[in-house]
Write a structure and sequence with these properties.
Pnp Oxidase, Chain A, seven-stranded antiparallel beta sheet, two-stranded antiparallel ribbon
Length: 160
C-alpha cells in the first residue's frame, strides 16, 4: 500500500464564473485564499432551576468573508467587476470556484462560493526601502459554499 501524503496548499486555482473573459491569463492567478470556513452559531439558554448548567442550541450557519490576494494587475476583468460594485453601486453577485489541484493539475476539492460580491479592495503599503511586489487584496461577501470532492481519485490509494 502506498504512503498517503496530504495535498499541498500552494497548488490551487480561482475562477470567477460568468465574468467576461480575462484580458490575460493572470487575471485569476491568486497567491492566497482565506475565509473558507463555516461555523454553526449557537444560542445559550440557562437551564431552568439548575444554575450550574447552560444549554447550547444551534441557530444558523455563519461564513466569514472571502479574501483573495495577488500581485497588482493593471488590466483585469475581476478588478472591473469589483470597481462597478464598489464605485458605481452596480452589485452583481457571481459564483467563485476555488480548486485545490493535484500534481496533474486536476481538482482534488472544489469550493463553490455562491453569490459573492466585492466589499473591499486594498493594496499593500508602498515603501521605497522594501524590495517587494505590490499585493492587492480583494474581499468578498458570499452567502455560502458547497464542497465537491474530485472525480479524479488517486488510483494508488484506495478510497481517495
Amino acid at each position: 500500500m502506498a504512503n498517503y501524503y496530504p495535498p499541498v496548499g500552494f497548488h490551487f486555482k480561482v475562477e470567477v464564473l460568468n465574468l467576461e473573459p480575462p484580458a490575460n491569463s493572470n487575471d485569476v492567478r491568486f497567491t492566497e485564499v482565506s475565509g473558507l470556513s463555516v461555523e454553526k452559531v449557537t444560542e445559550e439558554v440557562a437551564e431552568g432551576g439548575e444554575n450550574r448548567f447552560i444549554q447550547k442550541y444551534p441557530t444558523r450557519t455563519k461564513y466569514p468573508e472571502l479574501l483573495l490576494k495577488r500581485g497588482l494587475l493593471l488590466n483585469s476583468s475581476v478588478f472591473e467587476w469589483l470597481q462597478k460594485c464598489l464605485d458605481e453601486y452596480e452589485i452583481e453577485p457571481k459564483n467563485i470556484d476555488i480548486k485545490l489541484l493535484n500534481e496533474n493539475h486536476l481538482p482534488l476539492l472544489t469550493w463553490h462560493v455562491v453569490n459573492a460580491y466585492p466589499t473591499k479592495w486594498s493594496v499593500s503599503d508602498l515603501n521605497a526601502s522594501n524590495n517587494a511586489v505590490v499585493i492587492e487584496s480583494l474581499q468578498f461577501f458570499y452567502q455560502y459554499f458547497t464542497l465537491e470532492k474530485s472525480q479524479y481519485p488517486n488510483p494508488e490509494i484506495p478510497g481517495v
